[in-house]
Write a structure and sequence with these properties.
Distance between the termini: 24 Å
Largest sheet: 5 strands, parallel
Strand order of the largest sheet: 5-1-13-14-15
Order of helices and strands: EEEEHEHEEEHHEEHEEHEHEHEHH
Radius of gyration: 18 Å
Strand content: 25-35%
């Protein structure tokens, strides 16, 4: 039996210093492993326990570990996970499927054809973001992989009404909006992590899929998996979102990442992964 494990990265599996959520006294805080360096500075971390568990999990030949992220390929490739390198990775929210680090051209052509048929052009959406964002809280505007756009903002200054109006405007054009930390994403609705996960499952012959994620952009991934987990923080937790095959964790911050890897390992070790409540208790 082959088990595909598709996990979101930022604030699910790996955490910036600002997202660690360490609330215990310093002397008993978990030891951390830096897994990403950017511009010569440490950027993202896992607990050492989570790193060891992930290395053990990926050493199992029956496990296909698939990092699954909204990051661009360049941003993803800064990460150095412990254990066996992932043969497959999903970047740009499903727009890029990497095979041994190389973008799969056939997949990209399929994605481009569907976006052209079902969504307003990226140029229109990016232009709307620039035209309506307030310079008082806008810090950066970016286009990722020629697929979607996002803004880096001072979140406390962004009016909720503006985000709501943007979401309503985007919905009529086949796009979705997600607010994650200091970033506001505008993403074409057909651009999903779940579609790319299904493609990897097809190629590898995986009989079971497990997933984890924290944001609205991860909801489709969690719903598409046989069993999934979400941490006690993020957009999904804030909305109280769950589903029959999704286990909501109470743990938040970097310790939630460790708990998620433990849940993956337990599910893989179980003979015959079962959907729904029985499996969910393994991650609780």
């Amino acid at each position: 039996m082959t088990v595909l494990v598709a996990s979101d990265l930022d604030r699910t599996l790996i955490y910036s210093a600002a997202a660690l959520g360490l609330t215990m006294p310093d002397p008993v805080a978990p030891r951390l492993l830096c897994v990403e360096v950017h511009e010569s500075k440490p950027l993202s971390f896992m607990t050492e326990a989570a790193a060891a568990l992930l290395a053990e999990l990926t050493a199992d030949p029956a496990v296909v570990f698939v990092p699954t992220t909204t990051r661009t390929r360049k941003q993803y490739q800064r990460i150095r996970f412990p254990g066996r390198p992932a043969q497959y990775a999903i970047c740009a929210n499903g727009g890029q499927l990497l095979v041994d680090g190389v973008p799969d051209r056939d997949w990209r052509r399929q994605v481009a054809a569907r976006l052209a048929e079902e969504c307003a052009p990226l140029e229109e959406v990016h232009g709307h973001l620039l035209a309506t964002a307030d310079p008082a809280w806008l810090r950066k505007a970016r286009v990722a992989e020629d697929l979607f756009a996002y803004l880096v903002v001072e979140r406390a200054l962004v009016p909720e009404e503006w985000v709501k109006a943007l979401a309503e405007w985007a919905e009529g054009r086949g796009w979705t909006v997600s607010l994650q930390g200091r970033k506001i994403y505008a993403v074409p609705r057909p651009l999903t992590k779940s579609a790319a996960m299904h493609e990897v499952a097809r190629r590898t012959g995986a009989s079971t899929t497990l997933a984890a994620g924290d944001s609205l952009l991860d909801a489709d991934l969690l719903l598409a998996a046989d069993a999934a987990w979400r941490p006690g923080h993020g957009e999904l937790a804030d909305a109280g979102w769950t589903a029959p095959t999704v286990t909501p964790l109470a743990t938040a911050g970097v310790l939630a990442g460790e708990e998620i890897v433990r849940a993956f390992a337990r599910a893989v070790a179980q003979e015959g992964v079962r959907p729904g409540g029985e499996l969910g208790t393994l991650g609780a």
